[in-house]
Amino acid sequence: MKPFLNRVGRKISDAARNVSPTRMSLWQAFAYSIILLVIGIGIGSNTGVWNKSLQILGFKPDVPTLDFSALEQTYEQLASNYDGTVDPKKAIDGANHGLVSALGDPYTVYFNADEAKEFSSDLSGSFSGIGAALALKDNVVTVSSVLSGSPAQSSDVHAGDQIVSVDGKSTQGWSLDKAVSAIRGKAGTTVKLSIVRGDARQDINVTRADLTNPSVTSEIKDNIGIMTISRFGDDTNKLARQAAVSFTEQGVKGIILDLRGNGGGYVDAAQDIASLWLNNKVVVSERAGGATTQTLRSGTNPVLNGIPTIVLIDGGSASASEIVAGALRDNGAASLYGDKSFGKGSVQSVLGLGNGGELKVTIARWYTPSGKNIDKTGITPDTTITPTAEQIKAGEDPARDAALTKLSE
Fold it and tell me: What are residue 216's DSSP bridge partners?
């Protein structure tokens, strides 16, 4: 028997796209019964054997035993009466999705092998699609940010747009993963989005393209260094430190760290970014079961330490973005401008599965250095600046303009 969990991956703190259904569908429940029946047959019905197998699978030995008799009966009835062919691979895949979604945690997600590759591509920044990050806001599929130069931007898709249908299919009740899968596709193909912006609804056709998005971009304007981080991925620390060194070499008098629309990513990447400003300070602490399990501190080479800094956040700034914003403000290294952040205060770990899939599971809640958990409440900026629809349409950026003015004083 292959171990159920064969590796432990990096910790993730992200909100964009990684949301699972909260209820099992009839098909998922059916598939769940199949996999449990297979497991039950494979390990026997003896309680001692089941507990031993649980330990082999990596579960705690005090996990309550389960009575599979009802599920076995359901399977027998379905197998005898269902008018169709049961695909074992799809059944097991549905079982995994259903088992995880039954927890009701939107951030604990099962990925099959294909979905795991797609998830990895999200953090690497290479993918085919329209170039818009999505999030669930009040259970509505919402655009959290739009990639500069992307098909979404050229087709007039804006951050804050609610996507109410995709190719004529209503998105009501959709998980974020389902929305992402429906909107993504091969370069050159077109997807029809029905969006609600304010009180108006309109249809927009967007032609997909191959996209590459570095996680960090930077520029200097009026002697102010502007660093924009779109996600916390594998390349983030290297690119951000290069930008930081360039800022210091050119003697900038202030820095804007733009985290708007950044849905998160790797926790260690967030720790690295905070280390550009903080010298051996607490960045974030994690708690599980009410007890502190880990405290992450910054490094000791803060090349930007002491340089006046303003962090820009908005409703699309989530998880790892909120960790950085909270750490810099609580340690007195920066002030925050913009809108209240998304509000995701949990940490996930990615566990590899023997079938090539992955399980992203919530393992802890995280707290800012001042001891706050911002789950569902978000971080309120020191200076709230909300762009109007007219300003967005005109390409104006009042939050960044205000930050530039303040740092230029």
Answer: 229
In angstroms, the CA 117 to CA 121 distance is 6
Q: Contact, 168 vs 224, CB < 8 A?
A: no
CA distance 19 to 106: 5
The interaxial angle of helices 236-249 and 267-274, nearest 10 deg, is 10
Residues present in the chain in total: 409
Q: What is the DSSP string of 233-263?
A: -TTHHHHHHHHHHHHHHTT-SEEEEE-TT--
Task: Name the one residue in this structure whose structure tokens are 């995280």.
Answer: 366
Sole residue written with tokens 């309680």:
47
What CATH number was assigned to the domain covering residues 214-407?
A: 3.90.226.10
For 259-407, list the strands marked E by DSSP.
264-266, 282-288, 291-297, 309-313, 335-338, 346-353, 358-367, 383-384
Q: Are 126-211 and 214-407 equal in CATH topology?
A: no
What is the three-class DSSP state of 26? helix
Write down the pTM of the prediction: 0.73
Taking Cα atoms as reference points, which of 237, 316, 329, 239 lies closest to residue 283? 329
- The domain at 126-211 falls in which architecture? Roll (2.30)
* Residues annotated catalytic, as ranges: 319, 330, 344
| Cα distance between residue 406 and residue 285, in whole Å | 31
Whole-angstrom distance, CA of residue 348 vs CA of residue 107 = 7
Q: What does the alpha-carbon distance between residue 212 and residue 214 come to, in Å, rounded to a whole number?
A: 7
pLDDT tens per residue across span 344-396: 999 999 899 988 999 999 999 999 999 999 999 999 999 999 988 788 777 78
Give residue limits of the domains in the chain. Answer: 23-103, 126-211, 214-407
